[in-house]
Specification:
Distance between the termini: 76 Å
Structural class: alpha+beta
Low-confidence stretches: 1-22
Number of helices: 14
Radius of gyration: 32 Å
Strand content: 15-25%
Number of strands: 34
Shape: elongated
Mean pLDDT: 94
Helix content: 10-25%
Largest sheet: 8 strands, parallel, barrel
């Protein structure tokens, strides 16, 4: 395997510093007993499960054998205590050995290796095979039970000082492998000198390599059950090369967090009773070309100015194909290297926290790609994927699904969720494609799936995994929240895991669920010409039939503004003025509807084009030199005011999950295209929201209201001139009249602006 094929140019070893002259070789040394031919053959082929039993120093009858595997070396010697030097005999195939007589115990020693004839090129090395395992029994026990909640501390590459020597411990789970070797740029991508040992029945292979530190690139050379070799990136790599290169990189965390205040107070209020307004973005394309640290200089200020409480990053974990937007992950423990290092990503999260903004991230445990250097058939057989192709092959995306029933795989994913929340201080995870995990027949025809043990279509392994993941994350990371992108009517997505529902399942334990039904129905309604909307009126009211069945967030996400679906403003009917008016009215309705809200980048200023991962938002639309810049700035000003009023008005969020927090005023005014309802906070203070989705002004429109308030004043009107509207606004409060209406004892008469939403509070 050449350096080029391994995905990285090899680095030449540094010239060693001059060392004190060693004392002459011991006078009396003998040839070491030869290895058993089978052991020798397996060692050279990279198939031996216990290379430490053959290499290094071992007591034998008559002394101590020192044996080294150094392919391509011309000379190898060992320097013993007191500077005594012994030359090792070349045994062929890169093996060197010597029997040092009269030694009663194994000494500490160093190797001296020369790959050229020049004495000055001699390298002083600690022998990796003189060290005890650097992974403890407790780690192995927890891995075997699938309960290692800090798996990243046990597997992967970790810089450490072991037996007084600094180096890197490499560990990898590969239970089907006949042998594993570590290779890297410091070996010129030749791993034949570094076979790893198998740690019992755990399936874990381990090797401590002295002298290797941060920045070293590496992979694992795995001997499959059939004897062939495969070169694999580390599944637990916490840093990777920048794609298209694929090697893993040794790393350590050096970031000094400064978000103590944020971390201490997050979650002080239950999330379902708190204001949550999310700005979703694709980090690589928000401002194309910016690094994590450069984003930290711009993104927090922008989001804070617009008043969003959280950002949600589309998938950040490393992925080989840019066009997947991060949703086909190969490096589950590594932020993508496209924008910097893991510490650079921590710096971005830290900056957002210091600006008072929570950070959510899309997490993708539903599937992984088939790249032959990543997880697919990792050790020569199905390992992370299910062994039955009907359970492993994802029918829609050409990827593989995880085997959620396998203990170690479930542990890999549960620990991964904890890792992102703990190591990067994330405030929550939005779990992608949950529906594809829950159903065995997802996108499959009758003969392409197997029922569960009870004859049902539910994936019981996936259910148990999601329950364990949520329970573990909430236990370990106070103040976080998990979101499910779940598009079906699965019962109990946000119900606690210990509460069994009518279907016989405990809840999945998520904090919130994306309300895909509301999104689909409301976008269907708003995309119709106003003259036809009366026939679709129920599409805007149906969400209230099930609004309290789960804890919901209302998403207008990236999925709704790509692949021919058009941007939000371009979905609207009418001319440019009407499209913007519809856009503004829809946002006003969305922000006042029960549930939290999420808006994808570019929609905050009514971008007309679909989102492009290559070009990002059309920021030029707000440039002063653009003639219509005011139209787009007006929409952005509205979003800012929506968030400002929303956050300051508990009526809009405190009872999102309680029926007592909502009352219809009129939900059946289909001929008028009007919706009116009240929102209440915990002490009963109301906010009146009225949406007129017709293009006509409705004068003296009467609405029933509580008779306990003398007047109502506008606090937000999406038709205001500063937003680009016609400025049909109510400058004076509307007085409550003792005229029964809509089943109430009192009512108000007000003017409804066209294609607009108005919010009012008691004056």
């Amino acid at each position: 395997m050449t350096a080029r094929s391994a995905g990285r140019t090899a680095r030449k070893p540094k010239t060693p510093a001059p060392r004190a002259e060693a004392k002459p070789d011991l006078a009396v040394v003998r040839a070491a007993p030869p290895l058993h031919p089978e052991d020798r053959a397996r060692l050279i082929a990279g198939e031996h499960h216990d290379p430490h039993g053959l290499l290094g120093a071992h007591p034998v009858k008559g002394g101590v054998v020192i044996r080294a595997l150094r392919p391509w070396a011309k000379e190898v010697a060992a320097v013993l205590p007191k500077g005594r030097r012994v030359a090792l005999h070349a045994d062929g195939d890169g093996l060197f050995s010597v029997l040092v007589p009269r030694l009663r115990k194994v000494p500490e020693y160093e190797l001296r290796v020369r790959y050229t004839d020049a004495a000055a090129d001699e390298l002083a090395l600690h022998d990796p095979y003189r060290f005890l395992p650097a992974l403890g029994d407790l780690d192995l026990h927890l891995i075997g039970e699938g309960r290692h909640e800090e798996l990243w501390t046990a597997l992967g590459a970790r810089v450490m000082t072991h037996q007084g020597v600094t180096g890197t411990r490499f560990t990898v789970w590969a239970p089907n492998a006949r042998g594993v070797r570590v290779t890297g740029d410091w070996t010129y991508w030749d791993g034949s000198a570094l076979p790893m040992r198998s740690l019992g029945s755990s399936g874990v292979w381990e090797l401590f390599v002295p002298g290797v530190g941060e920045g070293a690139a590496y992979k694992f050379d795995i001997t499959r059950p059939d004897g062939s070799h495969t070169l694999r990136a580390d599944p637990m790599a916490r840093r990777t090369e920048c794609p298209p290169n694929t090697a893993s990189i040794v790393t350590a965390d050096h970031h000094a967090w400064q978000d103590e205040e944020w971390m201490a107070r997050r979650g002080s209020r239950p999330h379902h009773e708190a204001p949550i307004s999310v700005y979703e973005l694709h980090l690589p394309s928000w401002r194309p070309g910016l690094t994590y640290r450069q984003l930290a200089e711009q993104l927090p200020a922008y989001v804070r100015d617009l008043g969003f409480t959280h950002v949600e990053f589309m998938a950040v974990a490393e992925h080989p194909f840019h066009g997947s937007w991060g949703y086909q992950v190969t490096g589950f423990y590594a932020p993508t290297a496209r924008m910097g290092t893991p510490d650079d990503f921590r710096h971005l999260v830290d900056a957002l926290h210091q600006a008072g903004i929570g950070v959510l991230m899309d997490w993708v445990p539903a599937h992984f790609p088939r790249d032959d250097w990543a997880l697919a058939e990792f050790d020569g057989r199905p390992l992370y994927e299910h062994e039955d192709p009907r359970r492993s092959a994802h029918p829609d995306w050409g990827t593989l699904e995880f085997d959620y029933g396998r203990t170690e795989v479930r542990n890999f994913l549960v620990a991964n969720a904890v890792y992102w929340c703990e190591q990067f201080h994330l405030d929550g995870l939005r779990v992608d494609a949950v529906a594809s995990m829950l159903y065995l027949d997802y996108s499959r025809e009758g003969g392409d799936w197997l029922p569960n043990e009870f004859g049902g279509r539910e994936n019981l392994d996936a259910v148990a995994f999601l329950q364990e993941m949520n329970a573990t994350v909430y236990k370990r990371c106070p103040g976080i929240i998990t979101f499910a992108e779940e598009s079906t009517a699965w019962d109990g997505v946000t119900r606690p895991t210990d509460q069994v529902g009518p279907g016989g399942f405990g809840g999945l334990g998520f904090g919130m669920k994306w309300n895909m039904g509301w999104m689909h129905d409301s976008l269907g309604y708003i995309g119709k010409e106003p003259v036809h909307r009366k026939y679709h009126h129920h599409e805007m009211t149906f969400s209230m039939v099930y609004a309290y069945s789960e804890n919901y967030i209302l998403p207008i996400s990236h999925d709704e503004v790509v692949h021919g679906k058009r941007s939000l403003v371009s979905k609207m009917p009418g001319d440019w003025w009407q499209r913007r008016a519809n856009h503004r009215a829809y946002l006003g309705f969305m922000w006042s509807h029960p549930g939290k809200q999420l808006l994808f980048m570019g929609q905050e200023f009514a971008q007309g084009a679909e989102w492009s991962a290559e070009h990002g938002p059309e920021w030029w639309l707000m440039d002063e030199t653009y003639a219509s810049a005011g139209d787009h700035r007006g929409v952005r000003d509205l979003v800012r005011d929506l968030n400002t009023v929303y956050t300051a008005t508990p009526s809009l969020w405190e009872r999102d999950t309680s029926p007592e927090g909502f009352q219809w005023i009129v939900g059946d005014a289909a001929e008028d295209n009007v919706f009116a309802f009240l929102r209440f906070d915990a002490i009963g203070s109301p906010l009146l929201a009225v949406a007129n989705f017709s293009p006509v002004v409705r004068h003296d429109y009467r609405l029933g209201v509580p008779d306990t308030f003398a007047a109502w004043a506008e606090v937000l009107n999406t038709d205001a001139a500063r937003y680009g509207g016609g400025d049909v606004v109510g400058t004076d409060p509307v007085k409550t009249e003792s005229v029964p209406w809509h089943g109430r004892a009192a009512s108000v008469r007000m003017t409804l602006p066209p294609l607009a939403t108005v919010w009012l509070r008691p004056a």
